[in-house]
Design goal:
Elements lengths: L6 E5 L4 H11 L3 E6 L23 H6 L4 E5 L4 H12 L3 E4 L3 H7 L3 H4 L5 E6 L14 H7 L3 H5 L15 H22 L3 E6 H8 L1 H8 L19 E3 L5 E4 L4 H11 L14 H6 L1 H12 L4 H11 L3 E3 L3 H6 L1 H5 L3 E3 L9 E3 L23 H7 L4 H9 L3 E2 L4
Parallel strand pairs: 1-2, 1-4, 2-3, 4-5, 5-6
Antiparallel strand pairs: 3-12, 7-8, 8-9, 10-11
Helix pairs in contact: 1-8, 6-9, 11-14
Length: about 400
């Protein structure tokens, strides 16, 4: 596989940094996940939190710890840190998202761990400089709220929507993956490793860059209006069988006649109330009512075919259950099987990167906390007696549920 032989050590939690290591593992990298003792990565408990989907299956760790080996270490003691140093000495990449103050306390900064070929990858909440570098950052706060996305996405008069789990972390993990690959490319050219970073706040701003750029030139006038005031070609509707969908017609002069043909109302094209973009906006409430009435006459299967025939861009507004059952997700390789002899039949979400001719690893089950502690310590030269002693004293931990 493309990244076979690449050795990665992950000292991270919640979610962007582990997810970037998962992408590396998908392309063949050997990832060792270093977890806290005795209970492991706190991310393992996310599915037990309030408002999370309930299951006996630990679905978060299934997603972002696939293909990895797990070792449990107490990094606050010299022996535990010494084991990590041995792992890092053999690693190509170290990935962390610990706050700088924590890294300094544990002596795990880039300066502490660097060796000539090491890529030290650090995901932060708010970047490397400025008064808020030590502020705890999660995707809800640093990515979604701080970037303006939370404010910009809500409809006027409604409460801003909270972010979904991992909504900013997983896009940020792709940026981290890209940063690591750039550093590896540089290492190929120079023989030298180095430190790479990305942050939740930077990725949130990049996701909202169009409107931020508008603000940077003092552009004004954008606001989320009530539904009937919006461009009819970028509106949402409900079919007779209660399926909601959204149109996205950006070629206005071409897409407006297409919409009229879809709803079988060709006379609206030349209707003075709707003949121009300005007229449609001025009479938006009336036009939306007409479209609502027409779309309520047929089931979604019929509208799907008409929209396809007219090549009008649209999308179903799907629940996560709809997404999980969506055949296109499987046809496009977005949802893929997990290789797990103990619990066959599960699937997961693939990373969004593909290269022609490059095979991705079929995802394997996530490890239990400390599942590979003895195996990894043995590879580092520790005897069985020494390993048992380290585990008994809590320096390391073996397999846990």
């Amino acid at each position: 596989m493309l990244l076979s032989g690449l050795r990665v050590v992950e000292v991270a939690t919640y979610i962007a940094a582990p997810a970037s290591a998962a992408i590396l593992s998908d392309f063949g990298a050997a990832v060792i996940k270093v977890e806290r003792v005795p209970d492991g990565d706190p991310y393992r408990s996310l599915y037990k939190m309030g408002a999370m989907p309930t299951s006996e299956i630990n679905w978060p760790i299934m997603l972002d710890a696939r293909n990895k080996r797990s070792i449990g270490l107490d990094l606050s003691c010299e022996e535990g840190r010494g084991i990590l140093l041995k792992l890092v000495a053999e690693a190509d990449v170290l990935i962390t998202n610990y706050q700088t103050a924590v890294l300094e306390k544990l002596k795990l900064t880039y300066e502490d761990l660097r060796h000539p070929r090491l890529i030290y990858a650090h995901v932060t909440g708010y970047g490397d400089s400025g008064p808020e570098v030590e502020r705890p950052g999660y995707d809800m706060t640093a990515y979604w709220a701080r970037s303006g996305l939370m404010h910009g996405a809500h409809v006027a008069g409604a409460d801003p929507a909270l972010s979904l789990p991992g909504m900013g972390d997983h896009p940020t993990s792709v940026s981290m993956f890209a940063s690591i690959m750039m550093a590896l490319y540089r290492r190929e050219k120079t023989g030298e490793g180095g430190r790479v970073t990305t942050s939740l706040i930077a990725n949130g701003a990049w996701s909202n860059a169009c409107l931020i750029q508008a603000a940077l030139v003092d552009a004004t006038g954008f606001r989320h209006r009530e539904r009937w005031e919006n461009n009819i070609l970028a509106n949402h509707f409900v079919s007779r069988d209660q399926h909601r969908f959204v149109l996205c017609g950006v070629q206005i002069e071409v897409d407006w006649p297409r919409l009229c043909r879809v709803i079988r109302r060709p006379e609206l094209v030349l209707d003075a109330r709707f003949a121009t973009s300005d007229a449609r906006m001025l009479n938006g409430r009336e036009l939306t009512a007409i479209c609502d009435e027409e779309f309520a006459k047929l089931d979604m299967v019929d509208w799907r075919e008409r929209l396809r025939e007219e090549r009008l861009a649209w999308g179903p507004i799907q629940t996560v259950q709809d997404v999980a059952a969506d055949p296109q997700m499987r046809a496009a390789g977005v949802i893929v099987p997990i290789e797990d002899p103990e619990q066959p039949g599960f699937e997961t979400v693939a990373n969004p990167i593909s290269l022609d001719g490059v095979e991705k690893r079929r995802p394997t089950r996530a490890p239990k906390t400390g599942q590979h502690t003895e195996e990894i310590l043995n590879e580092l030269g520790y005897s069985s007696e020494r390993i048992a002693d380290l585990i008994s004293r809590g320096v390391a931990c073996g397999r846990k549920a």
